[in-house]
Design a protein that fits this description.
6 helices, about 50% helix, alpha+beta, 2 domains, Alpha-D-Glucose-1,6-Bisphosphate, Chain A, domain 4, six-stranded antiparallel beta sheet, about 290 residues
């Protein structure tokens, strides 16, 4: 009489086993591609091809997982853990690219965003690092698409001198750990300029940022920013988000710096007041 297999002794579904293997391999390939991109070991095209291969294996892992669920249910085979592993890792690897694909359907295919579309900050030093033909602003068509998609991307007007605004912007860029490639403080008749390289959070793509600080009136200043992807024709809203976050942080830091300057000025006035000689009646000598 044949003995019925005990629980846990059932042979594993081959589909489930391969689902888990595909998922683990996809994870390893994805990590490898990210390391390659962030370290610059290879050009962006082969690195992206490697990442694309990981997504193919992730999709296969999901497909095999669903197939294994059917086989396990019908034939009573084991391997459910492998199937869930393949399903979980596959979905996790495809989640972010799927999110970007969704954003691509909602946002225009542009890669160069600026607060001043009529006179955007220039890439001078950064022009040597960007691919040929991607240093100049794309033009009016891009400006129109930007105005419709990101109407809130606008210059930052500050009530602090240009030098203080420049120092604040430089401190914020440094705090964000951007690679500073050129810094020029504002001078009479010349705007201040900061050129830096930012990295995207996960893949580490290099995006180029130019900040222009112009004097406005007596003690005011204006900050314009340009952020452009170095590769690709769709930034999925990343450059606009970077500009918004940067200007908000500069605005907050400038307000704090302005208050500190006012407080220091008040303390200096009080010290000077105390140092002035007084007569016997307590009136200050003129």
């Amino acid at each position: 009489m044949a003995r019925r297999p005990a629980f846990g002794d059932e042979p594993n579904s081959r589909l489930a086993t391969w689902s888990g293997r595909f998922a683990l391999f996809a994870l390893a390939v994805a990590i490898l591609s990210i390391v390659i991109l962030r370290s610059g070991l290879l050009e962006i095209v082969p690195a992206l091809a490697t990442f694309g291969a990981s997504l193919v294996f992730a999709a296969l892992a999901i497909l095999f997982a669903f197939g294994s669920f059917v086989v396990i249910w019908r034939q009573g085979l084991g391997g459910l853990g492998y199937a869930f592993l393949g399903l979980f890792l596959g979905l996790a690897l495809l989640a972010y690219p799927s999110y970007l694909a969704y954003r691509a359907t909602k946002l225009p295919a542009i890669f160069d965003i600026t607060t001043d579309t009529s006179n955007p900050p220039r890439f001078d030093v950064l022009a040597r690092l960007r691919p040929r033909g991607r240093s100049d602003y794309p033009g009016q068509a891009t400006a129109e698409l930007q105005r419709k998609a990101y109407p809130d991307v606008a210059p930052l007007q500050l009530t602090v001198p240009a030098k203080l605004a420049y120092d604040t912007a430089l401190a914020v860029a440094t705090k964000r750990k951007w690679l500073l490639v050129d810094t020029r403080a504002p001078a009479p008749g010349r705007a201040g300029a900061i050129e830096a390289v930012a990295r995207t959070p996960i893949m580490g793509f290099r995006d180029d940022v130019a900040i222009r600080v112009s004097a406005q009136g007596g003690d005011g200043s204006r900050i314009d920013v340009r952020s452009a992807s170095r590769y690709g024709f769709h930034d999925f809203g990343g450059n606009a988000s970077r500009i918004r976050a940067l200007l908000e942080e500069i605005d907050e830091a400038a307000s704090v710096a302005e208050k500190r300057a006012e407080q220091q000025s008040e303390r200096d006035e009080k010290k000077a007041e105390k140092k002035r000689p007084t007569d016997k009646k307590g009136d200050k000598k003129r």
